[in-house]
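FORM 12-B: Structure-to-Sequence Request
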């Protein structure tokens, strides 16, 4: 059995293929935000390099967000299209949990808490705090949108020893000063800071075996907030600009 996993919620797109023995291989793009052009190329590379024909796939997994709105749409739409054509079930995986799993592959066993944070701009982030629980992860601070100070205060209230907690994600790029001022936490280096399809594949394999699959039509993106255009439309800002164009 093989599961194909797609991760396009961050700057760089990636695709992974995992087998029943949990051996994963992945291919990544070096182009920032080039998901539409890259994702199917990466899928083809993964399958061809491993000499796997599409009929050998058992499921398709996607990182459903949060993250880049455009990236989420591309990844989920691609996974749904492949699953529909091949008549395969889908597995949904949170990008935040995938980042926690990515960090867990690189840190010392003494690090038990994982704080994935994605820059949502304007002093905001998408984040959560996970703790290692058996073979998986439990969210002890829920996945949602936060102001940076709000999230850091929530982390400090957990009374976790700084060296037990690692931050991961491009939120570090935006808020490193604030994080360092909050405590001596471990910060993921750039070589494993960002979203990657391989941990998404490993999480998807566990969920597939547990029966946590959905039909392609029910693979739903998790944007975690409305797009800027939608918020501007609701506030009237976009409507007023459109009105001026029509005058």
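FORM 12-B RESPONSE
SEQUENCE OUT:
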């Amino acid at each position: 059995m093989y599961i194909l996993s797609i991760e396009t919620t961050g700057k760089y797109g990636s695709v992974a293929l995992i087998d029943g023995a949990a051996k994963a291989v992945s291919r990544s793009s070096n182009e920032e935000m080039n998901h539409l052009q890259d994702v199917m190329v990466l899928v083809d590379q993964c399958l061809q390099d491993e000499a796997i024909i599409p009929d050998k796939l058992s499921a398709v997994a996607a990182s459903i967000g949060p993250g880049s709105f455009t990236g989420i749409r591309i990844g989920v739409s691609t996974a749904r299209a492949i699953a529909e054509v091949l008549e395969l079930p889908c597995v949904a995986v949170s990008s935040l949990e995938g980042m926690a799993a990515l960090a867990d592959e690189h840190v010392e066993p003494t690090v038990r808490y994982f704080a994935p944070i994605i820059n949502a701009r304007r002093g905001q982030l998408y984040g959560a705090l996970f703790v290692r629980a058996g073979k998986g992860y439990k969210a002890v601070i829920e996945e949602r949108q936060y102001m940076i100070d709000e999230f850091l205060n929530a982390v400090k209230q957990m009374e976790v020893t700084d060296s037990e907690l690692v931050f991961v994600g491009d939120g570090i790029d935006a808020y490193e000063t604030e994080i360092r001022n909050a405590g001596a936490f471990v910060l993921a280096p750039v070589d494993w800071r960002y979203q990657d399809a391989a941990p998404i594949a490993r999480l998807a394999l566990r969920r597939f075996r547990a029966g946590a699959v959905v039909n392609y039509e029910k693979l739903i993106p998790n944007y975690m907030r409305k797009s800027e255009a939608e918020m501007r439309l609701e506030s009237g800002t976009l409507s007023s600009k459109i009105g001026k164009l029509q005058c």
